[in-house]
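Hey L., structure's done. Input below.
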Amino acid sequence: MTDEWKAPAKADAQSGDEKSWQLLEKTLLASVQEQRRSRRWGIFFKLLTFVYLFGALMLFTPLMDMEKAASRSPNYTALIEVTGVIADKEQASADNIVGALRAAFEDDKVKGVVLRINSPGGSPVQSGYVYDEIVRLRALHPDTKLYAVISDLGASGAYYIASAADQIYADKASLVGSIGVTAAGYGFVGTMEKLGVERRTYTSGEHKAFLDPFQPQKPEETQFWQGVLDTTHQQFINSVKKGRGDRLKDKEHPELFSGLVWSGEQALPLGLIDGLGSASSVARDVIGEKELVDFTVQESTFDRFSKKLGASVAEQLAMWMGFHGPSLR
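Output:
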């Protein structure tokens, strides 16, 4: 075969290879495009399914609520939980408890309110807010009685709140009382000296850093701080006496205000509580409406996390500055 014939044959072969590669490329592109289309349709149908299920849920939830409302008796007992430490930004904050109390007292179908308590206490300010609001609401709605029911623990600030109720109930083994005030901290002066670390604090005000744990205590500042605690304690005592009245056997038992706690069985003859019972038994036997409707303010997980984060930062800052306020605990 001459060179003239070889050249066209080689050109035809190269052309055939190019066509094969082009065809293969088109096939691969078509496959990729088909996969993309399939993926898009898959995402579309998944979104459509989600929207459908979400819409069905939104439609079904009100129907469930309507069914519950329809099956609910004309009247019921409002239940409000006071659980955990009583403090700002916590579940048992004054804002949450007061909001629930107002909603319960303003509901015409509520024939009585049960404040179910399981708390070691907490902020005297938050407890005082709730106490004052209970007194106000009871005066506005004299026909709606409020009953505090202590489950495991109703101590300090929690008992402060309970003492504003019409009556207090507890289990025979519940822990009740702890009418006192505490403010605790640490002293690192000796540790600093052993480590050879010098504390440098710059303040404007002679006693501005009197709670600094890295500085030695001064007798006059300790006396001043004790006066603050005593004043807060007396406020606590006055509120409990006002709420419990003649039922409280404090004259025969002055140790009631010493910070001690008693079991429910022991608390009954002391006048700290009015009877033994649970939230259900009080609703059924005392109020006369056994159905309990929960009015407790429920926070979302995000809200709780945000508040916890903010409270944690503030608490750490306060501890670093050496300040920790009085606590009814």
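Strands lie at 76-83, 110-119, 145-155, 167-170, 175-177, 261-263, 275-276, 292-294. The longest helix spans residues 3-71.

-- N.
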